[in-house]
Amino acid sequence: MKQFINILLVALMALSSVVQAEKISLERIYSDPSLSGKTPRNLTVSPDGQRATYIQSRADDYNRYDLWEYNVQSGKRSMLVDSAALMSGEENLSDEEKARRERLRIYGKGILQYTWSADGKALMFPLAGDVYYYQLSTKKAVKLTNSEGFATDVKFSPKGNYISYVLDQNLYIIDIKSGKTKALTTLGGGNIKFAMAEFVAQEEIDRMTGYWWSGDESKIALTKVDMSPVEVVTRNEIYADSIKLVDQRYPFAGTPNVNIELGIMDVNGKTDDIRWIDMGADKDIYLARGHWLPNNKTFSYQWQNRTQQLLELRFVNAKTLEQQVVIQEKSDTWVNIHDSLKYLDDSFIWGSERDGFHHLYQFDYKGKLIAQLTKGDWVVDALKAVNKKTGDIFFTGRKDTPLESHVYKVNLNKPNQITRVSKRDGYHRVSFSKDASIYLDSYSNIMQPTQVSLHKANGQHITWMEENKVDKDHPFYSYKSDFIKPRFGTLKAEDGQTLYYRIFEPVGFEGKRPVINFVYGGPGSQQITNSWSGRNALFQHLTQKGYVVFTLDNRGSANRGKKFEDPIYKHLGDVELKDQLTGIEYVKTLDFVDPERIGIYGHSYGGYMTIMGMFKAPDVYKVGVSGSPVTDWGLYDTHYTERFAGHPGNNNEDYDISNVFQYADGLSGDLLIYHGMADDNVLFTNSTKLFKHLQDLGKTFDVMTYPGSKHSIRGKKTGLHLAKTIVRYFDKNL
């Protein structure tokens, strides 16, 4: 009888777990296994199309990644390389690698990056500062380096005969057959860096490299960066048990950038024998991109002036160093940098916003326009692949809705006849095979964690790489039925443009509910999409506690075209806040909302927006949580700040009205500011300067600092503490 009762109790408990979903706690959000389930990253199809590889976190430690493969022929998945078998301890990262990973937003341990050889027979990956070479035939990883330094920016040469890397500010190559290492440069050190991307190139321009192989492996184009013009900032990186003084060359808005040179050298030539390209008399410029043309005789680079209102695509004859400007893009505000460039045999594809939206164009090699391939009041996200045999061009874009990214194709011979390839509504991030015959699709929607599948180029589903189905074995399963699906909607800005919003509305609560306005607001970002986000778990926790969580993409946000972006030019913190307040005016009309209990929360640019909201609209926002905020745009870097605010030497008044200080007297609500104490992006000085200003005004506020944390404030324990701090602050004050 007792045994029967025990069995009955177990059955009833199992039934109750299905009938009534669990509330999601902050502890659960930051524990293993991840609620997102299995989330493969760095998806790549091998050059021969026979394998799809990816890195995947472990079930018992979602911060450690191993290398996995899916074999197309056998249909089997297996771990290709166990990172723990190579190195089980902690990585001792160099300062350069820490900064590089912060710029790449790479977090975790184990195998985080890898590259296929051109023939698809080998893989290469950097781990703990060394370079590992993995041959499929032997199924063994061989360590090619054993240096005291830390190798970064590791690459296969195009034909797979060499591996190249940067070490101690110089460029090296390894001949894979002989195992011999050769230093291509030796003069790097101190303020001089060869083949490396400078700070603003990494953080703002999305150029993470400073060297480019020619396709025939005979030449390398590379940069030489002189850091000496950039102001030295002595930062205190405050850790739990120590303080580290860091001299960082940080290019504040309005101050000098690095001096950058671009050269070409023969791989088999003498060390340090570099022929330098004349980039013009104006040295105060940005090098945005570099590519070799298919003929291996011409190198192309994208040159941008300091105001960022002019972008040129230039071709350089690698033998004579003669140049021609092939494309010019101009703007009265700024020109966005992109990666929509693909060289074909007799023409090339180029992305441009010349009609107000990012679209694809075909040019001949003299720069003559052949055709505009895509057109309309929507944007192309990225050029993904070209099938040279059929002329089909594959790209991701927002033709159907700005809230979803889909795969489309257009043919070179049939401009503007666009076909949608991806089938399911939601967000698609894709990676095509070299011949554009198949692609990997990393798909999600607002209620479905990321699923990875393999498709033919016409969109036909071949197989699941990781179905990540939310069944009873999925970590999200016991919470899904209680998750509140957000509602999407639109409002009108003061100039008539459409603003998209998302709102999580609590269920089962009586009375008027408080509101948290989650905000980012800055350019280059979009918050309102039909996609899965780990951040939504925090929003669910807040909604289940009875909060309304509202988010709106104001003018200036990404993926809506230049007309939508341009209103913020030289008006930072003004137009964005007006649009957020338009959203809040709508929220106040909802019968379940308490208009007297509205809070605001954001990180980085969102932290800046939070402070602006608390200072400029104290009658609206009663509580604010500001994370790692910019407070003085003169303390942020050149390329980002001057793109949107201009040069402070030309318009100090515009900077004054965009900074938070002159509005600080308006603070009347409860404000919490948190910041990582080792932040090298938005320097901690932004917060300390505001602390002193508010103290001088006699304004009370709250502070939480995170020793050792960079801008993103990563780590399970730190993340949990931050989430608890945020929620507790709103619980107490809102």
Automatic annotation (TrEMBL):
Boundaries of every Peptidase S9 prolyl oligopeptidase catalytic domain copy: 539-734
Residues covered by the Dipeptidylpeptidase IV N-terminal domain: 126-449
Origin superkingdom: Bacteria
InterPro entries: AB_hydrolase_fold (IPR029058), Peptidase_S9_cat (IPR001375), Peptidase_S9B_N (IPR002469), Serine_Prot_S9B/DPPIV (IPR050278)
Pfam families membership: DPPIV_N, Peptidase_S9
Signal peptide: 1-21
Keyword tags: Signal
Protein name, entry field: S9 family peptidase
